[in-house]
Write a structure and sequence with these properties.
286 residues, alpha+beta, Multidrug-efflux Transporter Regulator, Chain: A, Domain 2, Multidrug-efflux Transporter 1 Regulator Bmrr, Chain A, ten-stranded antiparallel sheet, three-stranded antiparallel sheet, 13 strands
Length: 286
C-alpha cells in the first residue's frame, strides 16, 4: 500500500483532492493507521478513482458520481446519464462557437471601420405579392433557420415548385431582440396555391398579401447567417450617407439557405421600404 503522498504521485492527483474525497466518502483510504492517522491507499483503488475523475470531467456532480459508483447503477442508466451530458456539452460547444463567430465578425467590423467599400445597394420598387407564411416569435437565429428549413422541406411537395418563388422573412419587431425574434417566414407565391399548408399539428402556413414597396433599398448578403449584421450595418451607413430613411418593416429574401447543420453559404437580399429625407428648408415649406 501507499501513503497518501505516494498515491497522489502514482494517481497524478493532488493530495488535497484525495483528502476531500475521503471527507465526503467518495474514495476512502484502504487503511488508516489509528495511531498516526496516516492514510494508506492501494493500487487496486486506481480504477475507482479513474472512474470518478472521468465522470467529473463529463460534468456530473459528486452526488451523481457517488450514486453511479456506489449504488451500482445499471448500464442503461449510466448510458442515459452520459448521453444526456454529451448532448449538453455539444450544445454548449455549439453556443460558444456561435459566440466566437459573432465576436470575430464584430472585430472585422471594427477593423473595417473607415475602410468600408461602397455597398452595392439597389433601389427598386416591389409589387404586391402573395405570401404563404407563418408568423412566430422565435428564441434565436438557430430556431429561425430550423423553421425555414422545415418550410423548405415540406412546402414544395404540398404546393408544387412551379407556384413558389423565394423563401422570405418579414420582420415584425419594432426593435431587435435576439431572444424574441418576431418573424413571419414562408414562400412568395408565383402561381396558384392552397390557402393553407400544415407543417405539423401545431404549425400551419396561410396565404396573405404582402404590400408593395414604392421604393425599396436592397442589399445582398453572402456568407454566414451569423454575419448578416455586417450587411445590415453597411446598408444602414449607405442610407444615412445618401439621405434615405426607413419607412416600414423590412424583409429578408432567402435566395440560398445553408445546408442543415452549416452556417455558411447563405445568400440573402435585405429589403427596406425607404423614402428620401427632405432638407430642413423643404420641411419648413421654404
Amino acid at each position: 500500500m501507499f501513503r497518501i503522498g505516494e498515491f497522489s504521485i502514482i494517481a497524478q492527483v493532488s493530495g488535497r483532492l484525495l483528502r476531500y474525497y475521503d471527507e465526503i466518502g467518495l474514495l476512502s483510504p484502504e487503511y488508516t493507521d489509528p495511531q498516526t492517522g496516516y492514510r494508506y491507499y492501494s493500487a487496486g483503488q486506481l480504477p475507482r478513482l479513474n472512474r470518478i475523475l472521468v465522470l467529473k470531467e463529463l460534468g456530473l456532480s459528486l452526488d451523481q458520481i457517488a450514486r453511479l459508483i456506489d449504488q451500482h447503477a445499471s448500464a442503461d442508466e449510466m448510458q442515459g446519464m452520459l448521453t444526456l451530458r454529451k448532448a449538453q456539452i455539444e450544445q454548449s460547444v455549439q453556443e460558444e462557437m456561435t459566440r466566437l463567430r459573432m465576436v470575430e465578425a464584430r472585430l472585422q467590423q471594427i477593423d473595417a471601420h473607415g475602410h468600408i467599400q461602397e455597398p452595392d445597394v439597389v433601389l427598386k420598387s416591389l409589387p404586391t405579392q402573395q405570401f404563404l407564411s407563418r408568423r412566430e416569435v422565435l428564441p434565436n437565429l438557430d430556431a429561425v433557420r430550423r423553421l425555414a428549413e422545415r418550410i423548405y422541406a415540406i412546402v414544395p411537395a404540398s404546393v408544387g415548385q412551379s407556384s413558389l418563388g423565394q423563401i422570405a422573412i418579414v420582420i415584425h419587431f419594432p426593435m431587435y431582440d435576439p431572444d424574441a425574434l418576431d418573424f413571419e417566414i414562408g414562400y412568395l407565391l408565383t402561381g396558384k396555391a392552397p390557402k393553407s399548408v400544415r407543417l405539423s399539428e401545431e404549425r400551419t402556413l396561410t396565404v396573405r398579401e404582402l404590400p408593395a414597396f414604392d421604393t425599396a433599398a436592397t442589399l445582398v448578403h453572402v456568407g454566414r447567417l451569423n454575419d448578416v449584421h455586417q450587411t445590415y450595418g453597411a446598408l444602414g451607413i449607405w442610407l444615412e450617407q445618401n439621405q434615405w430613411e426607413i419607412v416600414g418593416a423590412g424583409r429578408q429574401i432567402l435566395i440560398e439557405i445553408p445546408q442543415p447543420g452549416k452556417d455558411d453559404g447563405a445568400v440573402i437580399e435585405l429589403q427596406f421600404p425607404v423614402r428620401e429625407i427632405k432638407s430642413k428648408f423643404e420641411k419648413l415649406g421654404a
